[in-house]
C-alpha cells in the first residue's frame, strides 16, 4: 500500500519499524513498515495510524460494545511511541502536571503540529456552542450537559470570538485518559473521513460563469477517445544524419538564405566606415568570424587581447591561442567585423522591431521546414540578458536567472527539447494589436500564435502558468489543440479556491470537472486537479485523466537522532494529469540552460563572448544560440553515437568546423587577402555623446552631439574626466554635410580649416 491510496480506511496498515523526520518538507515523515515499504507521510497521517491502533486495543470503560482487542496485541502502542505523548493536556494536569519525556526529539516534532490543530478544532467547537443555556452533546455521554451562560467566548476588537484557554466541561461518564483518547480519535477520524470531505458526494459550485462539478474525476482521455495517438518528432535529414558534419546539422537550423544579404550589408557598412574599397565580407569570412566567437565561448579568457597575442609576457600564465597566426584574423579585423555586422530588414521605419523581425520570421520558417514536432508541445518563456539602452519591449522578470533583457515566448517539442517557434515580446501596448488578442485576450492569444502551424492536429500542449487559464483551454479546443496547464494567477472561472481548501484539509489531492461551451460552439469537459507536494499544484486540462499515473521519485534529507543528514528516496503516487505535466513542463527550460552554458561543460554563453551595444545583435545571438542547442539535441536524438556526446564537446567541434568552413577554400581566400583586410588600426564609428552633452564639430564648428571613436585600438576605451563630465577620446564631427566624409578620407581638421580660410579670402578679394 503506497502513499496516495485511500489507506485511511485500513484499520491495521502494519507495524512501524522506523520513522525519520524529513528536513526539507514541512510535517513530513519517512516511515518504514515491517514489510520494508517506505512511505513519505504527513505528520497527521502518521498520528492517525498510531491512534487507530491504540483505539483498537483499548476498550472505553463506559461504552456499550467497545472495540475488541486486536488478536495477539497487548493493548499498548508501538514500542517506539511513548504513551505519554498520546495524552491530552487535561490528562497531564490530572496526573499532577508531570510532563512526558519522549524518547527522541522526533516524537516531540510529531506531536507539536497535531496538538495545535486539535486545540484549534476544540476552540472552534466551543465557540460554536450556544451561549444562552443551550445544551450540547458530549462524546461518550448518554445525556446532555448544559453549558453555563458565563462560558460564552468574549469578542475581540474585530468582532471575532476569542479562543478560550479553559478546557470544555467533561461528561459525568468521562473516565480519564481512555475517554480522552476516544474523543481525540473521533476528532481525528472526523478530519480524515473521506465521506465528510466530499469524496463521493458530488456537488456543484459556480465560479464566475463556469459551473464546476466538485469531487468528480475523469477516467477516459478525451484526446485518445477522438482517435489521436502519441508520436515522436521527425527530422527531415535523420536518414543521412550519420554522414553530416556538426556544422551541416547546425546550418539546417539556421536561415542560410539570409547569409548573402548579411555579407552584402557588412561590406557596404565597412566601405562607408572608411575601411577601403577593397573591403569585402564573403560567406567564408562570415562563418570564420562566427568560429572565432565560438572559440572564445569554449575557451574563456579574462581579456579579449589574449586570443590574439603571439608571445607571452614574463610571468603571464595563459594559453597562447594565437588566432591571428592560425586563422589570419587579427584583433583589428575582428573588431571591424563586429562593427559592420547588420541584419537584413523589411525597411519599415514605423516598426521598432524592423532590425530583427525579418530574421526572426526566416528563422521560424527554417526550423519548421526541418522539424516536424511530435504529439506533445510545450509553451514557455525564454530570456536573454540585456543591460544596455535602446531595446524596445525590455522586460524585467526577477525570478529569472537573467532578470533584465529580452523575453521571448517559445514552443518546444516534448520528445526532443528542440525549440520550434520563437516570438519576441514587443511590449504591452504593441501586443494589444497582435493576432487573436481581440477574441481571447493577451495570454491565450500568445499561446495560439506560438502553436499556429499545428492548429487542427490534435496535439497536446503543456502550458506554463503565464499562458494557462480556462479561456486558453477553450481557445485551444476551438483550434484543434488539447492542453494541460498550470494555473496560478489567471484563475478566473477556475475553482482554484475550493481545490486549495480541500487539499489543505485532506493534505493529498482534489479534483473537479466542468462542461462548458466554447466561443466556437463546441462543448468540452474541463478537468481541474490539485496535487499537494511541497506546494499545491493546480492544473487545468482538456486531456489526460485522474487515474493514478507513473509514480514520482522524491529524494529528501532525513535527520537522524545523532544529528546527521541521510539522503533517502521515496515513491509518491500522483494523478495521470500531474505525471504528464511534471514530465514535460521543463523542456524549454532545459534548452535555455544548455544555451546559456549551465552544467554543460562549456563555460559561458554568446552574451559573454560577443558583447555588443546593439540590441538587435543580442536578439540575433539568442536565435543563433537556440539553433546551436537545437542541433545538439538533434544529434543526441537521431545520431547513432549521439548519446555519448556532451554539450561542451559539441561546441568545441562546431567552433573548429566553423573556422575551417568549406567556403574558405571555395572562395580562395588566402592569408594575404585576410591580412589586407586588416587595414590600419583605426575604426571610424559615429556615436552619440552621453546624456545631454554637446560639442562643436572640429571641421565646421557647428554644435554636434556625435563623436567618431577613431583613436588607436589600444586606447579606444580611454576617457578623460574633466569638470565632473566624462570626455570621451575621439573626434567630434557632425554627420551632415561632408565633414564625416572628409574625416574618413583622412583630411585633418587643421587642413580643412586652412582650405576654408583660403576660400573666404579668395571670395572677399
Automatic annotation (TrEMBL):
Mention any Pfam family matching this sequence.
Answer: DDE_Tnp_1_7
Locations of Polar residues compositional bias?
Answer: 143-155
Report the InterPro entries cross-referenced here. Answer: PGBD
Tell me the protein's name: PiggyBac transposable element-derived protein domain-containing protein
Q: Basic and acidic residues: which segments have biased composition?
A: 84-94
**Region (Disordered) spans which residues?**
58-177
Top-level taxon of origin: Eukaryota
Q: Where is the composition biased (Basic residues)?
A: 157-167
Report domain PiggyBac transposable element-derived protein positions.
249-632
